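This entry is retained here.
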Amino acid sequence: MWDRIVESMIFYPVQGVAMTPEKLGIDGEEIFFTAEDGVRLHAFYLPAPGARRALLFLHGNAGNASHRLPNAAELVRLECSVLVLDYRGYGLSEGTATEAGVYADARAGLGHLIEQRGFPENRIIVFGRSLGGAVAVDLAQERKLAGVILESTFPSIADVVSNGLAGRLLGALAGQRFESASKIGRIRAPLLYFHGDRDEVIRYELGQQLFDAAPEPKTFETIPGAGHNDLTQVGGRRYFERIREFLDNVAPAL
């Protein structure tokens, strides 16, 4: 019972599709594939013409993949094909979100890029935002990825909710859920980390703590004045230029 209560306080899925690549006037397709436990997953694949590198986009705990399509389209302009995944219970994916389940979903997304799209693992970058950062860290352990991009994420869920009596209670119930601090040291790919210094959801210092636990090579980028959900807007052109620089360094466009 406690597991379901905690998960209902972590995951805020929105089902259905709010927008499509066609409606946004961008090249892309809706696809379905199956996780290792048989759950049917939905995703959007946005190809970059002639791209020799790909990015797996792992979003946060609310909304669904369709809400991230405008952001994904900006990443495609960096000469990188993008797969935006709906976790189980989100969008048009089957099932109900759990910690173990979303980890399996990320593995399925990576497998799709390798097995169906033909990208070598060392030409794939995993991008995790907020809760998706914890999913990205779990996925990236001991893998031979080109790189990892984390944004506005945390050492563990318990760290995020530790303020106040209710927060401490939820933190105690959450235990070691989405515990990235002990995993990030096993990442073998270069790391680029973004965090806004006015993040009202995941405190800036939590991002610094997780970054400090990561091995080199790594870079921390502060977005001055940015909160939790506006890094792309506040960061503007420089934000995307920094991502392009990272992509060109870890997986040159060729």
